[in-house]
Design goal:
This protein is α+β, with helices and mostly antiparallel strands and 101 residues long. β5 and β6 form a beta hairpin.
Length: 101
């Protein structure tokens, strides 16, 4: 998950990367396999860099989790009770229900 306002940029790239090892480029940078410069995110934008698609996807997923997931579903369980689940929680709930029977 992206925290702070610094990002990585590489000499040959067009994208900036958050400090998140889910991004393949950031992972290579953190392991020392790719040289990179650390700069402020605003500076990267001013220089014409765009956010990498992997980092953008991870950031969107993390944001959704922090907000309690925008995509939610209602399940009608026995005895007329209603429970609300986000899609990720629903998947975990169903998995747990199926494996603990």
């Amino acid at each position: 998950m992206h925290e702070g306002d610094e990002v990585f940029i590489t000499k040959s790239g067009k994208y900036y990367h958050y400090f998140d090892d889910d991004c393949p480029t950031t992972s290579r940078i953190l392991k020392g396999g790719t040289a990179a410069e650390k700069i402020k995110e605003e500076e990267a934008k001013k220089r014409g860099y765009s956010l990498c698609k992997h980092c953008a996807k991870e950031y969107a997923e993390d944001s959704a989790e922090r907000k309690g997931c925008a995509a939610s579903i209602f399940l009608f369980l026995s005895a007329g009770t209603t429970r609300q689940f986000c899609i990720a929680c629903l998947t975990i709930y169903i998995f747990n229900e199926m494996t603990h029977r």
